[in-house]
Design a protein that fits this description.
Layout lengths: L18 H25 L7 H5 E3 L3 E3 L2 E3 L2 E3 L9 H10 L19 H22 L1
Antiparallel strand pairs: 1-4, 2-3
Helix pairs in contact: 1-4
Amino acid sequence: MARMRVSGAELELKENLSRDMIRRMVEAGGKVADDRMKAATRAHMHVRTGDMLEAIKPTPYREWFGGGATEVYPQGDDRKGVRNATKAYVINYGRGRRKRNGKMGDKFITNDEKATEEAVRQAMEAENGRLIEEI
């Protein structure tokens, strides 16, 4: 699955970020990434039963010294037992055979990476601004 990394360490309050502040910033970015992936799934018409669309959500927050992370992708299985992440991967990258137009997959996730990264960064910076105002 496509992976994107946005560092909150580039934002203000580098060394003064508490664990709760980092968590709030990461979760704000995860929410934006979640919304964008769902919008891309709808826009490219990859919704039949809605199982994969409903399964798109952030993973539980993980933290380590000085940082935290969450990933957004379709989780779990659909009603037939097929992994939703596998379906999204195959739709995005293809099955390994070239289509008639020479492309594999429709890149509905990877074509939006740059815009999603910028939107996530802006959401994290906005949350950082709210945190500064609270202090």
